[in-house]
Each structure stands twice: as C-alpha cells, then as structure tokens.
C-alpha cells in the first residue's frame, strides 16, 4: 500500500466512560497506544487528542435544548471533526451505546465524519453485550458515512483478568490480539490518506460579508 508518510496525523479519541478511572478509558488508551505504534511502524508520526465526554455531559444537554454549543463543547467537536481518524469507545448499557455517547454524535453535523477512519470499541460487564458493536455502533457510523475498520474491539470484565489488567502487558491475550489487529487496520487507512485539511476559516465567519467586501478583518 502506498502511504502519505512524513506528515503528522491527529487521532481523536472519544471516551464515554462515566467513572474515573473507567474500563472504557482504559480500552481507549490501549487502542490509542497500539494505533500510534502501528502508524510509527508505517513511518507516520501521530499526535493524540482525547475527548472525555463525561466532562461535557451538561454541555451536551444544553446543546440539545438550545442548538448552541458552548466553547468547551465546540472545542471538543472541532477536535473530532478535524482529526485524521477517530477512536470511539463507549460503555454498553441495555445492549446499546450509552446516551452520553449517542448525544455527542447527535450534535455533530451529519457530514462531519464523511470518509473519516473510525475504530470502534466498547466495554461492559458481560460478553453478552458484545454484539452491540455490530447492531448499534456500526450502523451509527455507517449513517455518518465514516469509514469504519473491520475489527471492532469489545472488552468485558473478564477480559481484564490476568495479563490484561491495567499495568500488565497482556501480550498474546485475546483482547491484546484484537487491539493489535484493529489498530493495524486503522493505521493502514490513516497512512493511505492525505492529512486532514485545515478547517475553513470562512465556514463560520465572525466577520460579516459586508465587512469582508469593505476589506474589514477580524
């Protein structure tokens, strides 16, 4: 595969964990580290920006009610929309993504993630919830027209036992193998695309059209 090496890519990590610390954030961190390593193996440097949705719960509710994103939420949205790839991880409740996770993607413009490579992850107390990745998350990102990697990563409580506990390397475990495979798939997509274009400064201008015609600036 040809790559667009050299230019630094930005990976946005969306974590919808509700506790601190959370297994959702732990899985997000594992996926992120593996992706950065896989990109490095392909000669592509990467930076990471994490969006913890827990910190924006009230902001998201206000946005739904008013249609207006405050500055912290706008910054989080811009981080995700402007990234070269997204790693999105949610806890599973009642066989689907969390309301907090869904609300964040509800406030994005429907065209915001078109073509963006996405790696999906989810956590739950039992493996019975694992199919939520396929019947809930994958259709969500298909609707947003993102490019989702084939391997989705689910971690139940038992997956963190033994070698997969935080602080242990976990090499060779089923969870570690899934993380490595999914990260490699995401890295292949990212390395094969040009870096994301910078945001259009005229997409949401703060200067009126009349002022621009008169040569006014911001």
TrEMBL record:
Keywords: Flavoprotein, FMN, Oxidoreductase. GO terms for molecular function: oxidoreductase activity. It is an enzyme of class 1 (oxidoreductase). Residues 11-160 form the NADPH-dependent FMN reductase-like domain. The keyword Flavoprotein applies. Residues 192-218 are annotated as: Disordered. Its EC number is 1.5.1.-. This is FMN reductase. InterPro entries: CE1759_FMN_reduct, Flavoprotein-like_sf, FMN_Rdtase-like_dom, NAD(P)H-dep_FMN_reductase. The keyword Nucleotide-binding does not apply.
